[in-house]
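User: Hi! I have a protein structure encoded as tokens and I'd like to know what sequence might fold into it. I'm fairly new to this, so please keep things simple.
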């Protein structure tokens, strides 16, 4: 076990994944590990949006660097936006807080019927409230799936009916449940969440409705893998949120944790044995020139980052990138917004390499340097995410293109042209990636429009 260690490169020898190069986060030492196979379980890339519900240190470095070594990255544009998060409170926030999905079992979602209604929620009579999920989706009501509920919240806020500072919020109201079940039952079910909400917002949800707004939560794209959880690079296996597999179900609220557990407990222990038994590998040590090359390229990148000595912090670049991503490639995307993002990201990347200021040294505990490497990767990866979103001229699940919606504002798929996994091959930074299509073939069920009416 090597804790406080960050993988910074994948080593590929004779077309097989044969090890990794890491940085010791305490001493800064660059170290290599040779192996018969590599398994990445390094999580998702929500933090490319800067603000998300993920922990601050979740990042894309492991999968992005493996991608640059030849592993295909599939469906990066599919992003799950979770409807029940505490709204952003200001520009200086570093992450967002998820309020559990379970709250929608007993909470009712509403906004005022009229735009710019600044009254306190208790002063707005029932007849002037719009319980829009119950109105639009009578069968599922407040339990409509995440993508549908998130977009509905965005729509009412775009109409000027959002609540709270900045108007980017909707109410999640427990008044009816408190009356029906009593405070004791509600406290038993959700007490910890109510306490957490009060500690963060200073508002007591037993007395006034919570305010919630959608936030980036989970990423369905990731490194492409086959049924054995192996990428297109022999020996490189990818599990959990880091791969793209099975994530179609997740976008509707199915269990991401279960997929991680299934990959790690039930699939990989069996499939990796098959790889070992069936593929011949030559003995390899960390003295191999490919390890030395990878170590050298990490040292070169580190020195380059430290040498810029510009005027802007790493955080300011990350925040600006996140704003581009959220505004232009967030809950709703258009051809124009994506083209705009694809212009601005390379420009920001160029500025990063001329004007970033990374303090401290390489052979030391240096979080500014760690962050700089990750943000450098986001500045490359985000371009692929937007290119994928631009090429997919349809809406589906975690990808909503405003041009492709039904008359009722629901996602309009184009199964004739887009029923495939988009697996991208890296062709160099700033150069278009090559698209490989893996057709999705349905034999026993037929694709059809989702309906939650
Ligand atoms: C707030 C929140 C609530 C959630 N609630 C639910 C829920 O109720 N149900 C559900 O099913 N799912 C839920 N999810 C989603 C679920 O938790 C994740 O999808 C799941 O944890 C992913 O597991 P993983 O092991 O693939 O990745 P992670 O749990 O993200 O683990 C990845 C690990 O790899 C490490 N790592 C990353 N890069 C490197 C690197 N370069 N070098 C070394 N180490 C690296 C990370 O530090 C981390 O320890 C929630 C997610 C969040 C953020």
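Assistant: Happy to help. Inverse folding works backwards from shape to sequence: for each of the 453 positions I chose a residue that suits the local structure. Here it is:
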């Amino acid at each position: 076990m090597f804790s406080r260690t960050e993988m910074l490169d994948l080593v590929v020898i004779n077309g097989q994944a044969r090890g990794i190069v890491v940085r010791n986060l305490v001493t800064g030492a660059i170290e290599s590990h040779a192996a018969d196979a590599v398994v990445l379980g390094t999580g998702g890339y929500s933090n490319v949006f800067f603000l998300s519900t993920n922990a601050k240190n979740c990042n894309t470095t492991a999968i992005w660097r493996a991608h640059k070594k030849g592993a295909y990255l599939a469906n990066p544009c599919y992003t799950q936006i979770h409807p029940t998060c505490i709204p952003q409170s200001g520009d200086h926030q570093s992450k967002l807080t998820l309020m559990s999905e379970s709250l929608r079992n007993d909470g009712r979602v509403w906004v005022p019927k009229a735009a710019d209604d600044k009254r306190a929620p208790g002063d707005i009579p029932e007849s002037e409230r719009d319980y829009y999920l119950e109105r639009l989706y009578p069968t599922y009501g407040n339990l409509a799936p995440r993508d549908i509920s998130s977009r509905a919240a965005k729509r009412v806020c775009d109409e000027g009916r959002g609540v709270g500072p900045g108007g980017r919020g909707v109410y999640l109201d427990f008044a009816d449940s408190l009356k029906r079940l009593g405070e004791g039952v509600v406290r038993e079910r959700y007490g910890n969440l109510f306490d957490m909400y009060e500690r963060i917002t200073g508002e007591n949800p037993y007395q006034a409705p919570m305010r919630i707004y959608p936030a980036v939560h989970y990423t369905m794209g990731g490194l492409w893998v086959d049924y054995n959880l192996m990428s297109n690079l022999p020996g490189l296996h990818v599990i959990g949120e880091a791969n793209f597999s099975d994530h179609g179900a997740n976008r509707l609220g199915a269990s991401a944790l279960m997929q991680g557990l299934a990959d790690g407990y039930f699939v990989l222990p069996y499939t990796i044995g098959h790889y070992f038994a069936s593929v011949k590998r030559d003995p390899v040590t960390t003295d191999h020139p490919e390890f030395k090359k990878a170590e050298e390229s990490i040292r070169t990148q580190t020195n380059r980052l430290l040498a810029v000595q510009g005027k802007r912090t790493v955080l300011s670049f990350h925040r600006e990138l996140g704003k581009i991503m959220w505004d232009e490639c967030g809950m709703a995307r258009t051809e124009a917004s994506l083209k705009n993002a694809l212009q601005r990201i390379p420009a920001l990347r160029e500025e990063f390499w001329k004007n970033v200021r990374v303090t401290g040294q390489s052979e030391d505990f240096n979080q500014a340097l760690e962050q700089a490497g990750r943000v450098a990767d986001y500045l490359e990866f985000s371009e692929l995410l937007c290119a994928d979103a631009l090429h997919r001229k349809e809406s589906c699940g975690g990808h909503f293109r405003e041009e492709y919606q039904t008359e009722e504002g629901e996602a309009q798929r184009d199964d004739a042209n887009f029923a495939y996994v988009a697996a991208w091959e890296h062709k160099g930074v700033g150069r278009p990636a090559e698209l490989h299509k893996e057709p999705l073939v349905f034999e026993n069920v037929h694709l059809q429009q989702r309906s939650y009416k």
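A useful reference point when you look it over: The mean pLDDT is 94. Feel free to ask if any position seems puzzling.
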